[in-house]
Amino acid sequence: MTQIQQPATTGPGTERPAPSVRQPTFQWAAGPAIPLLSVVIALIFGAAFVLLSGNDPIKAYAALVQGAFGTPYDITETIVAAIPLVLTGIAVAIAFRTGLFNIGAQGQLLVGALAAGWAGSQWPTLPGPILMPIVIVFGIAGGAFYGGIVGLLKAVRGVNEVITTIMLNYTIVFVMHWLLQAGPMTAQNAFGTPASTPIGAGARLPIIIPNEIVLFSRLHAGVLLAALAVVVFWFLLWRTPLGYRLRAVGLGARAAAQAGIDPARHMILVMAIAGGFAGLGGMIEVSGVFGRVYDGFSSSYGFDAIAVALLGKNSPLGIVFAALLFGAFVHGGAYMQSHAAISSNLVAIIQACVLFVIAAEALVRGLTRRRGHKPVEAIA
Amino acid sequence: MGGLPIPPVDRYIAGYQDAVKTVSPTTKILNGYSQDFVDQQKGLEVGKSHIAQGCDILFQVAGGSGLGYIQAAKAANVYAIGVDADQADVAPGTVITSALKKVDTAVFQTIRAVRLGTFKAGDNLFNAANDGVGFGKTDKIVPKEAIDAANQALADIKSGKITPKDTVQVK
Amino acid sequence: MTLEMLVGASVFAATLRLATPIALAALGGTMTERSGVTNIALEGSMLVGCFFGVVAADRTHSVGVGLAVALLAGLLLAALHAYASITLRADQIVSGMALNILALGLTTYLDYQMYGTTGTPADLPAVPDLHLTFLSGVPYVGDAIADQNSIVWLTLLLVIALQVFLFRTVLGLRWRAVGEHPRAAETVGIQVRRLRYAAVLASGALAALGGAYLSLGVAHSFTDGMTGGRGFIGLAAMIFGRWTPVGALAASLIFGYGNALSTSLQGATIGDVRVPVQLLGTLPYVLTILAVAGFVGRSRPPAADGLPYETEGHA
Fold first, then answer.
1. CA-closest candidate to residue A109, choices A305, A319, A311
2. What is the extent of the structural domain holding A126?
3. Which of A202, A213, C241, C286 is a Cys-bridge partner for A128, taking CB atoms 3.0 to 4.6 Å apart?
4. Which of A173, A179, A181 is most worth mutating to test chain B (most B CB atoms within 10 A of its CB)?
């Protein structure tokens, strides 16, 4: 792809430059600078909180980092925790890019998990190369269906997606209760949490780092699926005509409509795609971590996903790093609580500070913006 | 009232119902679920509903939500029974006793077993036989005969004379 | 399934009880969005109101102080949001999300620090119910409304008051103008920033009142995260109610009714088949979606909702 030079912005006779076709590289690289700065500032705020509660911030952060990355096992656990966040983060981000607010990643993940779990246990004897793709397809389809409903209701009846996603999130929780406790997916499980029939061995994502290298490793092939999903997200949105149209809709619906893009159809499409990503996340959790669908196995991916998408600025690489950060918070927080006797709720407070500083980023951005030199959003 | 009709909850309810039917077959039993283990308002609503239908004693197995159930009992001046931990302090005068899941005993015995080298990994069962369950402080209104009968029942379960049913009869 | 289960007086009574916290959150949301600021931190304001109300009532043995502190707590959280959204012109969604996470983490942490394993005390001063004894003989109506909590009545009054305020007073008109076209409002001399600050603070206080109702009025205690998403349901109710106080109440009542049904229908049978208790839990949500899809359809938020406003030099 050729790079188009920016004409000079000063001097006599120069007109306002046309929107550049490609975002200048230095500006792209400077993108993460502000979120990074925000994280640092937030950590300082968080340290203040820790001090206020009578604890030692150095000890707390050391425990947090130790817990998240200290041993190879911890690193794998952080990655395992981050994987569903990557996918639900994409689910939220892709909708944001189109101007829709997808709070429903949580529900879409669950539907995907249920669909995948059901498919995996229906034909357990099928060999891996056949069963695995089936389970993946079911997972994506389940999530896509659940997301598609939201888009459909908005396109056809104008129902605000905030309402539908919140309502559907709760609905699937109860449906899941019924499915796993008294409905068709209940499996015999005398003592423990209600769960579905375990999926066939062919549908389980293999552990890719064997116990010989990292003891107790749970790092499963889902990480490869997640990486693939990130690439697909990037490719779809920045390298296909459809992605171009979707981003255009997000940047200005009226202009997009004038360019001949039908917002209704795109709403349904985007929500279905977003749901599909989240559904894949659910499928990965079932296939890679649990082997069956446990009632209530996922409780906070939905909200964390919004935070991940926002922190990652709705961009592929950003989401990966944000998801890893949140995964580190989850895993490191548990360690911090057990080894440094500091409540893991402090992790929530630090998370909040990170987000809050991100929110204020806009001001920082405004201050650093020079007159007449607006940052360029790459459209092409 | 249970939180959700899942085995860990329903077993409590099943045993409770079995005991009620054994001791007093004419007593009417109602059953309900708050569908939540945190939301107190939901527990309260089920409580109000049950009290409106004439309940005098409210037994809840619903964690945080169950606190709402106990509140409903307190507001209507009827009695409640706690669960898991001794909940006598939640509403003194209302909570007449609690069904104890003696996690403290379980943890202690496990640590002890590890220390003594007798620990076996896998499912370890704690029940009446190894002091894993019991009932909590009884309110002064509970008659002595009831406490004696309860202790006797506990001993009978321990010795195997009584085996409580584990399926809920009144759904 | 009996008629009693569907529309009995006790169901209506439960509807009011369940709708109240949601209605308060929806009222708060309506007030701020009408002025042009999106505040999704209502859940957080509700939760801090819930918690700090209990702490204050416990320490001072006074429910009045408890309520006041609850309102203050919700207001302070909203103040952070106001500062971020109005002065810093930050992304309002991000700020709101951050404050929700903060509220949950903070209240859970402090709850453990202060009430650790024992839980909040049993003798917490409570917001009294309003016993309308003159109604106790009246069939249906008596059973339905004779013993509601004072805050339920306060909420109904607030709905009426705010509806009149927004749509019948000069200040209310200005309020809405700021939400639709802040630039134009400013040119006629309306203090956009000041008004928006007031709106956000008010929303925090309203949501906190809902929280205080939950902890001091209904549960008489505090458990972590006890608001359980009511702040967000309130946002949905606000949108459903087309950003009007009365609409917010109507939407909240529909949701509350669905909730009440999920209790009253337990044990109901259709013919020979028992309605599974878990599916009953979906009632309020499905009912809301159907209602919005079927009857409300497209609803338009205030034109300048959620957009940061850059003033021309003055506050």
1. A305
2. 84-311
3. A202
4. A181
**CA–CA gap between residue A61 and residue A43 (Å, rounded):** 9
Rounded CA-CA distance B64/B81 in Å is 14
Comparing C-alpha atoms, which of A368, A371, A379 is closest to residue A30? A368
CB-based contact A203:A131 (threshold 8 Å): yes
CA–chain centroid gap for C166, Å, is 18
Interchain contact C148–B (C-beta under 8 A): no
Q: Is residue A16 part of a domain?
A: no
User: Do C57 and C50 touch, CB atoms closer than 8 A?
Assistant: no
* Contact check, Cβ <8 Å, A166/C278: no
The alpha-carbon radius of gyration of chain B (Å, integer) is 17
Kindly identify which residue of chain C lies nearest to residue B89, measuring between CA atoms: C122
pLDDT 10s digits, B40-64: 999 999 999 999 889 999 999 998 8
Q: Do B7 and A174 touch (CB under 8 A)?
A: no
Closest-approach residue (CA) in chain C for A169 = C285
Burial class (CB in 10 A: 0-12, 13-18, 19+), A213: exposed
Contact B36, B60 (CB under 8 A): no
* Residues of chain B with C-beta less than 8 angstroms from the C-beta of C228: 36, 38-39
Task: Kindly determine whether residue C292 and residue A182, on different chains, have CB atoms separated by under 8 Å.
Answer: no
For the segment C211-219, the average pLDDT, to the nearest whole number, is 92
Interface of A with C in 360-379 (CB under 8 A): 360-363, 366
Tell me whether residues A181 and B8 touch, CB distance under 8 A.
Answer: no
Say what the pLDDT of residue B45 is. Answer: 93
- Pairing mode of beta strands B95-101, B133-135: antiparallel
Smallest Cα distance from C279 to chain A, Å: 6
CA distance C231 to C29: 9
**Dist CA A311 CA A324 (whole Å):** 11
**Which burial class, exposed, middle or buried, applies to C83 when counting CB atoms under 10 A from its CB (0-12, 13-18, 19+)?**
middle
* Residue of B4, B126, B171 to mutate for A, most A C-beta atoms under 10 A: B4
Domain-embedded: residue A146 = yes
Whether A119 maps to a domain, the answer reads yes
The residues spanned by each domain of chain B are 7-101+136-159
Q: What is the DSSP-derived secondary structure letter of residue A201? A: G
CB of C263 less than 8 A from some CB of B? yes
Total number of domains constituting chain A: 1
Check residue A18 and give its pLDDT.
52
Average pLDDT over residues C291-312: 75
- H helix or E strand, kind and range, residue B99: strand B95-101
pLDDT at B161 over 90: no
Residue A270 resides in a domain: yes
What would the CATH number be for the domain defined by B7-101+136-159?
A: 3.40.50.2300
State residue C76's pLDDT score: 96
Which residues are registered as beta bridge partners of C270? C273
Nearest CA in chain A to B3: A177
Reported pTM: 0.85
| CB pair distance less than 8 Å for B4 and A181 | yes
Q: Which two tokens stand for residue C305?
A: 């909702």
List the subunits that have 3+ CB pairs under 8 angstroms with B: A, C
- Summarised one tens digit per residue, pLDDT across range C218-242 is 988 898 888 988 999 999 899 889 9
Residue A150 at interface with chain C, using a CB cutoff of 8 Å: no
Mean pLDDT, chain A cut into blocks of 10 residues (380 residues total): 45 51 58 72 81 81 86 88 94 90 92 93 86 93 95 88 90 91 76 78 81 77 92 93 82 66 82 95 91 82 84 90 90 82 77 75 54 38
**Nearest Cβ partner for C263 among B30, B45, B91:** B45
Kindly provide the ipTM of the predicted complex, given to two decimals. Answer: 0.85
C274 touching B (Cβ < 8 Å):
yes
